[in-house]
Please model this.
Amino acid sequence: MKGIIFVDVGKCLGCRTCEIECAVAHSQSKNLFEAINEVPSSQPRVSVSEVEGLSVPIQCRHCEAAPCVAICPTGAISKRGLEGPVTIDEKLCVGCRSCLAVCPYGVPQVKRGGKLVTKCDLCFERLELGQEPACVAGCPTGALQYRIISEIGQEIRKEVLSRFTFESGTSE
Amino acid sequence: MVSLTIDGNVVQAEERTPLIKIAEKLGIRIPTLCYHPALEPYGTCRLCTVEVVKKGRARLVTACNYPAEEGIVVHTKSERVIKARKLIIELLLSRCSKAKVIQELAEEYGVKEPRFGEGDEDCILCGLCVRVCSEIVGANAISFTSRGIDREVSTPFHIASEECIGCGACAYLCPTDAIKLEDIKGTRKIERWDTSRPLQRCSICGNYFAPVAQLEYIKNRLNLPEEIFQNCPNCRRKSYAEQVAALGHI
Model:
């Protein structure tokens, strides 16, 4: 049961609510109005990139064989269980930035005002409480969805199949 | 498993766990400048001094490298501990009077003017930089040199080290910010080590992003596609976004 954040680019407006929700969820106070005054200010772990008129929110893909986990010399970056998210134990981070060099998606970032590296943790604390990741919960259009990987394939297959049945129905 | 008492809390712990780790789990804060959980304890800054009572005898030990033992009683805030810590802070302050982290400690413990003068050293010889370079990075570019009052951290013979990969872990861990790291015009300079390392230029945006030596070092350890090492993290994220946009979803 490995869940992942599914991004539907067609639904993304580029409003960056996900970035705000993420920063608030990872702030000390967990409250927008208090978070803006925190020093250092909380930063989003998801970023919306603009690509030829489209907006694409990118967060950690929580790779199965993650290069950042493999390269981290202190074991600060680890996978929480075989199918769990890739997270950073900030106490163990020594700031060598090896993870920045190896991530194929350019996800880990140097933390604001600090010496550490930070990245999306799939809001594992929220998941344990049965809540969705903050960016997903806040997305107003449903461009971000928290879905089980094995089900995504099945759903796409079903959708494609339903299209076929519809077309054959109209042609009759 | 052994059973011990820390500030009145009776706890079970794995034998030989450093006291500082057990205290941390209990939420007891012990000040330290030279301890890092990813590194072997070293016991140089002495700030984590606590009082251990064993078989009726009390003595001061450093919590970062004192192992958990059956039946010991640990006091982290006793009068004797605070007095010893104050002296340690006073000594540190008289060595590095301008270091912010030490000034903050002095304020917290009410240490005013150090009786031993106000030096303007910036290094407290905690050895975090030396240890991270050898234990974690494995480059062994820097080390302690000389003895006694001449002891300092340096590259061999004070000349630029060929072993340094320019990762900057030493600068990140330094508690007094004595090690300055600067990226100027495609070169990473670490003035303290008299070292400069060329930076890799991103093949897309042209910005410099990581020391070539560090990328080479990583290449040798991990089998990854070459383009990862050619492009900066921002451009990697962008080109991934382009792929996603073309696909419509991920």
